[in-house]
Structures are given as C-alpha cells and as structure tokens.
Amino acid sequence: MTPLRPLPYGIFIGSHALAEGLLTRKQLTGLYRRLLHNVYADPSLPDDHQTRARGVALLMPPDAAIGGRSAAAWYGADLSSVNDPVVVVAPRGCSWDGPRGVRVHKTDVRQSEIVVSDDAVRVTTVSRTAWDVATLEPTLTSVPILDAMLRDGHLSEQALRAEVATRRGRWRSNRATDLVPLVDGRAQSPPESRVRVACALAGLPRPIPQYVVIEDGEFLGAVDLAWPEAKLVVEYEGAYHFDGVQIRKDDARYARLIAAGWRVIRLSSIDLRDLSGVVSRIATALAEV
Question: Which of 45, 116, 213, 260 is such that its CA lies 20 to 30 A from the CA of 83?
Fold first, then answer.
C-alpha cells in the first residue's frame, strides 16, 4: 500500500501542488483558503494582509519585491487590511502586472534596496519601504504607517530624514519632504496618528502624543494627545476600552483630569469617520481658552 503523502502546509501555488500529486483538486478547493488566483494557504494561517503578500511573493518576478505599505508589515506596521491591494515594487520595463489584488509600482529599484526576510520573502529595505510609503500613499495613510515603523524601532527619524534628503528632486519628493515633520514615533495607534495629522493639516497647534499629566506632583494619567497650555486632552477609545474593567479605569482617570481643570474629548471609531468634525470640535475647545 502506498503511504499517504502529507498535505501541503503554508502558502503554495495550487497548480504546482496538483502537478506533484500532493492533493486532489477537491482537496485544494475544499481544504485550503484561496489568497488570489492559483495561490492557496493553509486555513490555520492568519487571514491578513501579510499572508496575502507572502502569496503574491510566490508569483512576482525575481527582480521585484514586496514594497510600500505591504512591506511595512515586516517592519512593525501591519496596518493594511486583507482587502487592500498588495504593493509590489518592480524595475521599469517589467512586463508583469500581477493578478487581481496586486498593485505593481514600476520604478527605479536597485537590488541593494531589496532584502530577503526571515520567512524567505523578498521585501524592500526599511529605508526604501519608508520612501515608497511616503510617496505612494495619502498623508492620512502614510503617517500612521511611518509612526508605527518608528515606534517599533525598525526606522529612526534620522534615517527617514536622510532617505528623503537623498532622494530630493525625484518623483513626489516634495510630498515626502512635507510629510517628515508630521511623523512621530510616540503615537500608539493609527487613529491617534490620524487625529494628530488632521489637526496639523488644519493649522491647529501641534498636540503632544502620549502626554503624562502631573498636577502638584500627582500623576493623573497618560493621555493620547494633549495641549497642555489649553489643558485639553483627546483620547481615542478602541474596542478594548469598552471592557467593563477598562471602562471603570478610564472613568476614574477622566474624573481625576476633570477635577484638576482639564477638559477631555473622547473619540471612538464612529467619530473618526468625520475627521473634519473632530478637528472642528478640537478647534472650538482650543478657542475657548
């Protein structure tokens, strides 16, 4: 009796597995998750953007690499959703456009700007990734990604400034130059970054991220964004804030702040659907000082 061969694990090209007799078509379509055309993954793997990018890496040409916001996942900024197109950076003249769900950016890319990750995926270097994030994405998308890369320690503000200065005069270099002052590695979440950037773009005074409030030597709490001169605090409350224990902790912290004369604006994901409205609320509060 012929021993059973183990079924594939991980991410693989479906037609190759069928040709090698590793499984049947029924097993392929019934047991595995389809990432994109002809690429499948074991269903135990996370259904996230980085997994999709690993699938795309099996198809892209050898001189291309996962880049931009997709490569940022390897540098502490896995902020793209599973439905966002996977970004691939490829040399000019490359004929490969990728399947549906892939965004190929054809540009000047040196092989020295590509590395092989620990999971054997060709990705752009951290500096090149930062450059592509800064030039390819809208400001409210790029800054949170760069904030996360700084916070995670893969990128430094000095390295970001040097990368942008080195590429001055290139395509969209002015956008990258304008972006650098908006980046802040102290940010602890993308919503916090977006609110901070929206305020800056509206011309409001810059808040201090992760500000520690101390009054008369007493620690009152660490807050997401603060304008100390106006004694104004903005807090973003993610899903975990609505846990029963966390609610009580937050309420007690806010009570201490308010008792000390601070004003608190509390934001949720629903509020962030209207960033201009959030900025107006903050502007009004700042004007009341």
Answer: 116
**Radius of gyration, alpha carbons of the chain:** 23
Residue-wise pLDDT tens digits, 37-90: 999 999 999 999 999 999 999 999 999 999 999 999 999 999 999 999 999 999
Instruction: Say how many residues make up the chain.
Output: 289
Residue 45: phi and psi, rounded to 5, are -75, 150
Return the CATH number of the domain spanning residue range 190-287: 3.40.960.10
What are the boundaries of each domain within the chain?
66-182, 190-287
Q: DSSP assignment, residue 23?
A: S
Q: What is the per-residue DSSP string for 264-282?
A: EEEE-TTGGG-HHHHHHHH
Which tokens in the block code for residue 138? Answer: 């809208």
Cα–Cα distance measured from residue 129 to residue 105, given in angstroms and rounded to the nearest whole number: 12
Secondary structure class of 71 (helix, strand, coil): helix
Residue 121 structure tokens: 């995926």
Strands 218-227 and 232-236, bridge-based pairing: antiparallel
**Residue whose tokens read 């209207």:** 274
Answer left, alpha or beta for residue 251, where phi above 0 means left and psi between -120 and 50 means alpha. Answer: alpha
3-state secondary structure of 203: coil
